[in-house]
Structures are given as structure tokens and as C-alpha cells.
Design brief:
Length: 226
Amino acid sequence: MKMKKAVVLLSGGLDSATAAAIARQEGYTPCALSFSYGQRHARELESAKAVAQSLGIKEHLLMSFDMGLIGGSALTSKVEVPKGDTPSAGGIPVTYVPARNTVFLSFALAWAETLEAPDIFMGANVMDYSGYPDCRPEYLAAFEQMANLATKAGVEGRIKFRVHAPLLKMTKGEIIRKGVELGVDYALTWSCYDPASSGRPCGRCDSCLYRAKGFADAGIPDPLLE
């Protein structure tokens, strides 16, 4: 039986790697989509490539554009990445990139329509996350509705697009345990927003703190740090 293609947003982080593995487990052929968007942690793209290869993903598209021209985020400007604070303290953090998931999903939708692939997977999560508004279930439902209104394939009724967020209500620990079960090599993944000059994770940004908490909760050492 020919497996159906699905577009998977693959940043190189542990969430997106797990989402890609879940797509494969569910019988899809993942087509990975990564973005070079002017992020200070472009190191994640090396991980995206390695993860795609380790999962046997044959189609991996890298889209390049510069959201640094817009700014508005510590990830795409000279604004410092907060360190050592409790994740999500004080509401939406300065690491929020304006409309990033909308931009990413729009590219994914365009590719999915071209591939005639109704399914888009992403690693959005609302349990252990940094308070980003474009990770919420109501946002994902709204984008899915828009996708079927704004595409030729959707209007003609040939494709009903679906946005899958299989990690949405899982904790980081649960995500890691699921990924290990599916054979994800987390040593290949990258989470840090502000890598040290040595190339090592800073260990103190929101993303590093969530990653550390996830591995601790899962009772598994982080292989990236070994």
C-alpha cells in the first residue's frame, strides 16, 4: 500500500522530531519543511537535517527568508534572550516571533497543496511551552479552517486540509518518552535559543530549561549533553 504524504514542520528541536516520528508511525510519508528565517539559533538547521536523515525522510525542503528585517523578537534581533528565569513568567516572552507559526504553516500549506497532501504535522504544545499564542488549539483550528477556504484544492473540494498537533496536550516528559519509544535520536536534536560561542547549549534560556525539565521528568539523561 502506498503511504500518504504529509508535510511536517521540522525545526530540529525535540518536539518537531517527535511529531515527525508520530506521522511516520501513523502511516504517513513525512515530507520535512524547515526554515532559515534569520534566527539567532540557526544551529537548529543542522539538527533538522540530521533528524530527517535518521528518520529516513527523503523529501526535505529548506525555505529561506529573513524575519530579522521585521524584528520584534529576541530570536531575530539584538534583543537579549532572557536567561535563568522561570519559563513563561510574566506572560508572552520576548522570544515570541511575530506571526511565526502563521508564516510557517502558510508555506506548509502551499507545499501540501502542490503535493496533494491533506495533512500537515507540527510540534505545537500547550502544556510545557513558553506561552506563545500561535501554539493554542483554537489558533490551529482557525488556521485549518482558513486553509480550506483559501486554497484552490480546498474550494474545489478535492482536498480537506488537516493540521495535526499530536503533542498538543503532552508534557515534555511524555513527549520524550514517546519519542524514545519511536526511536527518535534526541542526541541529534537542538533546543537552545542562544548557543554559547563553544557551540554548546546555554542551559539557561526558556527552551533549554523546558528541555532539561522534560528529560528529568522522563527519567532519561539528555544525550545531547553527554
